[in-house]
Design brief:
Helix content is about 35%, strand content about 15%. α1 packs parallel to α2, α1 packs parallel to α9 (about 240-250) and α4 crosses α5. It has a single domain, classed as Aldolase class I (TIM Barrel, Alpha-Beta Barrel), CATH 3.20.20. By secondary structure, the chain is α/β, with parallel strands linked by helices. Bound molecules: phosphoenolpyruvate (PEP) and manganese (II) ion. Phosphoenolpyruvate (PEP) binds near residues 50, 107, 129 and 159.
């Protein structure tokens, strides 16, 4: 039995398909609320947005920190969408947990073992992103660091791996979805925004992710991508996000899945998640 993870009043996993959307980073109240309202209206299940940003250059915008978390909480209250946001430092886990419904461990921190253990001690679900050079085995071991601490609510996320071709930001490894399906009952998400780095590629890869059997996607949306402080090139405009959602509404019934929406999916249930016996730590 595949694991379902209860978030607010719906579940991720099983026969559902969850769309997480929002800006890369929380930049301001106006920017966050514009994106949050647009994605809520178009049917997203969860709102994303980074308050603590893992930036390659220390000179880049690093996020609003606590102020960003407070804005996320207000955007959540206003739209009714639960929030997913990244935590980078084990010392911030409690604070982030007070403002979010799902804790995100970013690709760069997939093997930050103190962080994995700390989020494993929380009760909130954890969205664990695959490191850009991590194997399936390394991703599953990282998940085990979390589950071993008692938190079985881990959602895995493919977000692209490093390769040789600069025509896309990373190479979105969609084959990992069925590969993971053979190895674990944890829900599997795909992030085509970071995986491709280009807004025009997000919609086709979202549909491909659904066809590959993903339990959902996480996409970046910005009302004014050209002025985004982070990842503007891969951000969908609200209108493009709406088109993507309409395409999903047509595709998902053929795949035996339904789009989840807060307030629309009846009773939430949760089953116990494990990593299959085939995968045993040495
Ligand atoms: C993000 O989702 O905000 C992010 C930084 O993604 P990743 O960790 O996959 O690079
Ligand atoms: Mn981003």
């Amino acid at each position: 039995m595949r694991k379902t993870i209860a978030i607010a009043d719906f579940v991720v996993g099983g026969d559902t398909f969850a769309v997480i959307a929002g800006p890369c980073a929380v930049e301001s109240e106006a920017q966050l609320f514009a994106a949050a309202e647009a994605v809520a209206q178009a049917g997203a299940a969860l709102l994303r947005g980074g308050a603590f940003k893992p930036r390659t250059s220390p000179k880049s915008f690093q996020g609003l920190g606590k102020e960003g978390l407070e804005l996320l909480l207000r955007a959540s209250q206003r739209t009714g969408l639960p929030v997913v946001t990244e935590v980078m430092d084990p010392r911030d886990v409690q604070l982030v947990a007070e403002h979010a419904a799902v804790l995100q461990v970013g690709a760069r921190n997939m093997q930050n073992f103190p962080l994995l253990r700390e989020v494993g001690r929380q009760r909130l679900p954890v969205l664990l992103k695959r490191g850009p050079a991590a194997t399936v085995e390394e991703l599953l071991y990282a998940a085990q660091y979390i589950t071993n601490e008692g938190n079985g609510n881990v959602i895995l996320c493919e977000r692209g791996i490093r390769s040789f071709d600069p025509s896309t930001r990373y190479v979105l490894d969609l084959a990992i979805v069925p590969v993971l399906r053979e190895r674990t009952d944890l829900p599997i998400l795909v992030d085509p925004s970071h995986g491709t780095g280009r807004a025009s590629l997000v919609r086709p890869m979202v549909l491909a992710a659904a066809a590959a059997g993903a339990d959902g996607v996480i996409t970046e949306v910005h009302a004014d991508p050209q002025r985004a402080l982070c990842d503007g090139a891969q951000a969908l405009l609200p209108m493009e996000f709406g088109q993507m959602m309409n395409d999903l509404r047509r595709l998902l019934p053929m795949l035996g899945r339904r789009l989840v929406r807060p307030g629309a999916s009846g009773h939430a249930t949760s089953t116990t998640g494990t990593i299959s016996d085939e995968f045993t730590a040495p």
